[in-house]
Each structure stands twice: as structure tokens, then as C-alpha cells.
């Protein structure tokens, strides 16, 4: 758990005065009572009271905030709804939080062009709700979609259950409008399939608030499938379940969703949601088919055959839309359900090649014994994107430290089998040390060069996502290629 650093009252007054000279009073919070709700994001183990919180109403005010902060050399932490799970929106004691949550208008809906132009604070689900009368929706569907904002999704390159078939945020955003730290507006991408110039849109998506402030987003909308059905398949061990995932994809099927829950997860969810899960199974898979009635019937038949051949026991197929939603409701509510069986949980996020699912799940089970902590696995199996929920009690001395070490070991295992330390939750503050395991010095240098190109003063979310080489050296981990001495002449940012 991190302790909040003290805030310099004189500096706070100086920065607040400068901000109040360019913004209405309601847009600037500096009283600790008002700034307290911003002290953490979804990674609540890390907390820091911000020096000041700003809540701009429009792009002009965003630029005004950036100008003040640049002139006074104040770090800026962008924020959406604060649902991030890696501490990306964790404030700084000498920094300003810039929340775009109030910029929450749908600017334009263009059903014929199948796109929507929205302000950064629009909630993910609100886009699909607004597109629904046109028979369209926005495909990436993080489980937090009722609350999280599109700017947060852009910054984290968020995913969700349907991203296996329809792609992540990066595949569904056409254009972003960005306020730069220099006080300019730039537009990355365009409304056509391709845009001229360097593909900076792809660089920006997933950049975790380190390159600029998102002030507008153009998203792709797609037609709502005519129908969808989901299979719930039971397995008597997680290894067979993990292998079944690889079999489905190897059979040339791309399901609309392919999710796995182990027994700890289904047992924690079932009394909470009554989704109808087989709680005797060691693991269950949820496999969705969508499209026309014919396509769905055919795919359900093919998936059933593959799952049976892969060792599934019971197989249930949703018989109505209500039942399909019920099957998914358990999966979507798995994180909150963890609160029923454990005072605290720590949600990890790593990605591995699908063929290694069984191996990594077995490795995680061994780590449960090593660390003396339980772990529930509920995840986007089709993408190989794991979400181990490590259960612990923060009131028990040492348990949080053990949970953190457990999580770091899982990420190291993901890298070892050829995977990555994040699938969709980002690096933020949480996984900054794990970056030292994943990347070489040259790779980290390249990231810093991009950061410098957008933010030479290093003011935008400066302590997140990319570790300094000094940090990697202190952490004692740096992947070195070609026998190059790792710590010689470590550059500081
Ligand atoms: C219960 C639960 C379930 C979740 N399920 C999923 C899931 O299925 N898939 C998934 O991908 N994630 C999931 N998440 C994580 C989280 O919801 C996503 O990362 C989401 O995109 C964060 O959006 P936000 O608006 O809350 O952003 P915040 O948490 O406020 O910020 C996230 C990052 O975006 C940056 N940022 C915010 N606004 C801006 C802006 N205007 N300009 C530039 N940078 C900005 C911040 O600095 C930070 O780095 C889940 C979280 C919870 C609590």
C-alpha cells in the first residue's frame, strides 16, 4: 500500500490562483475535502491526494489548463471515470489532475457513415445506447462499460468480451483530437479507412495519458448482429478447458466471445448473480456465436462438436436472449463478486499465447501454494488475456506485499512463455517494474524518444507506464540483448 505524500500549500495556492485566472471557479478544486474522491483509480491500494483537480467543460479550457501547467512546470495527470486498474490516473502530490469527465456530449451520430463523434467523457455504453435506434453499436465492451469513458478506453486501448471477433479500441477508433502540452490541437487519423501521414493514431492509442489530452474521439459503429447465442461448456480440469480454447480457434472459428472461468470464480459469482453456472466443473467456457440465425445455428453446432472432442462434459446452449444475458451477467460481474469471498482482491492482467493457457494456469495454481493466497481466474480466453484475481486481506500484515509479489510472478511467467505484461489494463503505476522484464534498454529508449517528441518537458503523466533505466537498474531487472552492459551510462529522462 502506498502512503500519500504531503502537498506544499504555497505551491498549491500559486497554481490554483493561476488556474482560477483562466477558468471558472467550479472547474478548480483545491480543498482536500473536494479532491479526496480523486486520490485513486480502480487500483485502490495506491493512493495520493492531488495538489489540485481541474474539471474543464470544453476544449478551450483544456488548453488553458495545459498552458498554465506548462508555464509553471506542473505535472498533469489526465483522468476519465477513474475505473482504470493499473493506477494510470493516480494523482501526484505536486500535480494537477485534469478530468475530462464533464465533456460528455455526443457531438454527431452518422448512421450512414457508421461513425459517431463524441467528447472524451462520454461513457462507453452511452455510445452504443445512442447508436441503438440506428441498429448500430460500438463493439469494444470492457466490463466497466457502464462507467468508463471513451478517452480512458483510448488511453488504455481497452478490450472486452467481444474484442476477439471485433477488435480492440485501436481497431474501432478512426480519429482522435488531442490537446498537446504545447497548447495546440492536433488530429490523428481520419474518417476514411486510411489516413495520410505517419500512423500516429496507433501510437497514441494505448499511450496512457503520456502524449496529450484526448478532447474528441471518432468511433466506428457496426451493425448489431441479428441474433446471438452462447454455449456454456463444463470441464473437469482447467488444463482440458485451456486446451479446448486453442482447439476452437484452431478449427478456424472466431467466436464473438470466448471466456473462461475457473471453479473459484464460478462459485464466487453464482450466489451473487444466479447465472446458472455449473459450479461442480473445474472450469467453464462461455463461447458466443453471433450473426444471422443460420450463421449462429451452424457455428453453435461446430463449436459444440469441437468442445466435445476437446473433453467438455456438460454443454448448455442459451435458448433465449434472456438466458444468453444471464450467462454473460456472471462473467461481467465477476470482479465485484470477488468482494463476497475476500475483503480485498488484486486484479492482474497479462496476455499469453493461447497454446500456453493450460501451462500458465497450472503455474498460477502452484504460486497459490507458494504465496498462501487464493486466486480466481476469469478471463478473455480467446485472446489469451488472463485476469487472475488474487484474493487477500489488507488488514493482515504482509498480505498485500505477498499479493503484489504473486502478481509480479504471474507477469514474469507470461513474459517467459512469450506473452506480455498487459492485455488491456495498461501499465500505469502498477506494472512499471514489470516493464523492465519485458523490454530491452533499446526498446525503452525508443519509448522515451516518442514521449519526448510529444512532451519535451515530461509533464504528462510523467511517472507512469515507461520506467526510467535507473528504475530498472534499481529494480535489478533489465533484459539485455547481445551481451551489452545493462547499466553503463544510464540515461536519465
Ligand atoms: C469492474 C471493472 C471491470 C473492468 N473491465 C475491463 C475490461 O473488460 N477491459 C478493459 O480493457 N478494462 C477493464 N477495466 C479497466 C478500465 O475500466 C479501463 O481501463 C477503462 O478504459 C478506463 O477508463 P476511465 O474513463 O475510467 O479512465 P481512467 O481510469 O480515468 O484513466 C485511465 C487512463 O487514461 C488516461 N486518460 C483518461 N482520460 C484521458 C484523456 N482525456 N486524455 C488522455 N488520457 C486520458 C489516464 O491518465 C489513465 O492513464 C475494468 C475496470 C473495472 C473497475
From TrEMBL:
Keyword Translocase on entry: no
InterPro entries assigned to the protein according to its UniProt record, in alphabetical order: FAD-bd_oxidored_4_C, FAD-bd_PCMH, FAD-bd_PCMH-like_sf, FAD-bd_PCMH_sub2, FAD-linked_Oxase-like_C, FAD-linked_OxidoTrans_Type4, Oxid_FAD_bind_N, Vanillyl_alc_oxidase_C-sub2
The UniProt record lists the keyword rRNA-binding: no
Recorded superkingdom: Bacteria
SUPFAM superfamilies assigned: FAD-binding/transporter-associated domain-like, FAD-linked oxidases, C-terminal domain
Domain (FAD-binding PCMH-type): residue spans on this chain: 46-224
Cofactor(s) for this UniProt protein: FAD
Gene3D superfamilies, alphabetized: 3.30.465.10, 3.30.70.2740, Vanillyl-alcohol Oxidase, Chain A, domain 4
PROSITE patterns, alphabetized: FAD_PCMH (PS51387)
Keywords: FAD, Flavoprotein, Oxidoreductase
Pfam families in the record: FAD-oxidase_C, FAD_binding_4
Name of protein: FAD-binding protein
Organism, as annotated: Massilia rubra
